[in-house]
Amino acid sequence: MDLTNIDQITQLLKKHKLHTKKHLGQNFLIDRSALEEIVKAADIQSTDHIIEVGPGLGVLTVEIAEKAKKVTSIEIDSALFPILKDTLSQHKNIDLLNEDALQFRPPKTPYKLVANIPYYITSPLINHFLQSENPPQTITLLIQKEVAEKACQLEPKASILSLQIGLFGNAKIVGIIKAESFFPAPKVDSAIIHIETHNKISIPEARQILSLAKRAFSNKRKKLSNTVLREIEDSPIDKDLRPQVLSIKDWQKLNNFFNSSKK
Question: N or C: which end of the chain has fewer CB within 10 A?
Answer without folding.
Answer: C
